[in-house]
Structure formats: C-alpha cells, structure tokens
Design a protein that fits this description.
With about 300 residues, the chain is α/β, with parallel strands linked by helices. It has helices at about 20-30, 45-50, 60-65, 80-90, 105-115, 160-175, 185-210, 215-220, 230-235, 240-250, 250-270, 275-295; strands at about 10-15, 35-40, 55-60, 70-75, 95-100, 120, 125, 150, 180. The protein has a six-stranded parallel sheet, with helices on both faces. The chain has a three-stranded mixed sheet with strand order 7-8-9, covered by helices on one side. The model is unreliable at about 300-305 (pLDDT under 50). The structure holds NADP nicotinamide-adenine-dinucleotide phosphate (NAP).
C-alpha cells in the first residue's frame, strides 16, 4: 500500500548536483516532502538552484539547511560526505533520518556514523541511476523511475530504527524507485562488478586510444561507432565523483580487477592459440547476459530512459 504524502515535513539536501537536484525535482513533483531546503558548497550552484526554483529555501550553510529537517540527504561526492555531515552535525534534529546517495557504501556509512550524533537514524543509500551530466541543471524528476535504490541499513533491530528505514524506503518508492536492502560490503562488491570496473575499463580504453600515435585522434573520432563510442560516453563521467569511488572502494575494485585480469589473460591465450571454440562459448554466454539485462528492464537505450545509467 502506498504511504501517505507528504512523508517528510522538511527535506534537506546537502550537495545539489545531478542526484541532489533530481531528488528535489522528484520530491516536489510527487509531494513526498512538504518543504525543501538545499545547501551546496558552490556559490554558483546555490545561485542556480535559486534561479531554477528547486528549493523553498536555498541555505547559506549546511547547518541552516538541516535545522528542523526530518530527512537529510547528503548528495556530495563520496569523499566529501563525512566532512559535510560534520559541518552540520550539531544542528541535526533528534529523530531525523540521515541518508546519502554515495556510490560506495562501507566507507561512507562509517564516515556518516562517526560524524552525526546517536540521536539521529543513519540509513545509507545508493540510487542506481545517473547520467554523464553534473550540476543542478542536470536533474530531472523521472531519473529514479523504475531504477533500483539500495539501502544499506545498520545492524539494528529496534522498532524505531526499522520504522526509519521503512520511511526512507517509502520516500524512494514515492519517487518511482524500487527499493532493496543489502549489506554494505556486499553492495560494494556488486557495484565493483556492475559499475566501477566498467568505468575503469572505459577510462582506460579511451586513455589508451588517446595515447596511440599510430592511430590519429581524427581517426578515433571518425570510426568510433565500432564500439569505442559507447566507451567514450562512460568515460565522460564526472572525474571527481569517479576518483572518489575508486579511492573509497579500493578493496572490492582491486579484488574484481584481479579476476578480470586473469580472465583477460585467458582470452589473450585463446586468441594467440586460435582457440575459436573458447571465444565463441564466451561470446554466446555474454549474449545471454545482455538478454537478461534487457528482460530486467535495465537497458539504458530504452526510449524513455535514454539518459540513464547508474553510478
Ligand atoms: P555532482 O553533479 O558533481 O554534484 C555534487 C555537488 O556537491 C556539487 O555541486 C559540489 O559542489 C557539491 N559539494 C561538494 N562538496 C560539498 C560539501 N562539502 N557540502 C555541500 N556541497 C558539496 O555529483 P552527482 O553526480 O550528483 O553525485 C553526487 C553523489 O551521488 C556522489 O556521491 C555519487 O557517488 C552519487 N551518485 C552519482 C550517480 C551519477 O551517475 N552521477 C549515480 C548514483 C549515485 P562543487 O562542484 O563546488 O564541488
């Protein structure tokens, strides 16, 4: 059964780029929060947030934004979340739900929990939705429609905490998302495979092509439809965001990268020794995975969702 709206009296968003502004649009469009206060560290972003009318209050400090808020969402780059939470910790209302949207969960959960008082409910989260765009202009209300949001609640079983987790889940559901709960370390391993490694490969392949002297830059652009184009889209993602992701999800990324490197060696052997069956078998299996992605409704080239990807 859908929860009654508004779910929150005052929503505070700290950091208002693509994700923060999409939450503001979504909360406004659905009525999930009665009042929206936004703080962003960038004065230019704050001016733009005011021009776009994203908030009822564009706050001058994070502390001002969270004052009286019953839901606080940190939507800064991953490594800024701890600092942003410390900056407003004493202004948080007891009983407030404090969450984030960071693409890495174990490190962020630790930083958040350390920063805020015990009187608030910390429920880390991660919407698996995004685009290559950044900044307050990039957001739109439908970004989360039919996308997964993973919540990584603390290991607490008390009723008050479970109720807080459910209210946050209801908020995301109101914005059109599907909510899943997961252990934070498991989240980081899953995302290392599905998102972080693909980005690393894209950054690497585009970097390799850019460094190749035998192939001119003009040729790289001209013949990019041969597969390279899709990598350039991913490799255009925000450099600060992705630097932070790799530095904070180091263990899981290195673990998956190790396996990937072994598999790549095996592929390289198969090519060297002309083992066509091995190549064919792998390519057939991967084709099935692609069909599974489409069947799960997570195909990024779908007409309505052409701009979407998960970070
Ligand atoms: P974004 O468009 O770059 O916006 C981040 C905003 O936060 C910027 O305006 C930035 O200002 C501001 N900021 C930085 N430090 C701050 C602080 N201490 N206090 C207040 N504001 C601060 O980033 P985004 O793409 O929305 O990503 C935000 C978060 O969502 C990241 O943690 C990311 O991992 C996660 N996420 C992203 C995606 C995606 O595809 N983009 C998907 C899922 C989750 P400055 O520009 O001045 O630094």
């Amino acid at each position: 059964m859908a929860a009654d709206l508004p779910l929150f009296e005052r929503l505070a968003i700290i950091g208002c780029g693509l994700i923060g502004s999409s939450i503001a649009h979504g909360a406004r469009a659905t009525g999930a929060a009665r009042q929206i206060a936004i703080y962003d560290a960038s004065p230019e972003a704050r001016a733009r947030i005011a021009e776009l009318g994203l908030a009822d209050e564009v706050s001058e400090t994070a502390a001002q934004a969270v004052t009286g808020a019953d839901l606080v969402v940190f939507a800064t780059p991953v490594r800024a979340i701890g600092e942003a939470a410390r900056a407003c910790a004493t202004a948080l209302k007891p009983g407030a739900i404090v969450t984030d949207v960071g693409s890495v969960k174990a490190a962020v959960a630790e930083a958040l929990t350390e920063a805020v008082p015990d009187s608030v409910f910390v429920v880390p989260g991660h919407p698996i939705a995004g685009t290559e765009q950044s900044g307050p202009d990039a957001g739109f209300a439908e970004l989360f429609h039919r996308r997964w949001v993973i919540l990584t609640p603390q290991a607490r079983e008390d009723d008050a905490y479970l109720e807080a987790v459910q209210r946050l889940a209801d908020f995301w559901t109101a914005l059109g998302a599907e909510v899943e709960r997961m252990d934070e370390k498991h989240h980081d391993l899953v995302l290392a495979v599905t998102s972080h490694l693909p980005h690393l490969i894209a950054y690497n392949i585009v970097g390799t092509a850019a460094d190749m002297e035998e192939v001119t830059r003009a040729e790289v652009m001209k013949y990019s439809a041969g597969g390279f184009r899709d990598f350039t889209r991913i490799a255009a993602s925000d450099p600060t965001m992705w630097r932070d992701i790799f530095l904070t999800n180091k263990d899981a990324v290195l673990e998956i990268l190790g396996r990937f490197t072994e598999d790549l060696q095996a592929l390289s052997r198969a090519i060297r020794w002309g083992e066509g069956d091995k190549l064919y078998d792998l390519f057939s299996r991967t084709r099935e995975i692609r069909r599974g992605v489409i069947a799960a409704g997570q195909e990024s080239a779908e007409p309505d969702f052409g701009r979407k990807r998960g970070g």
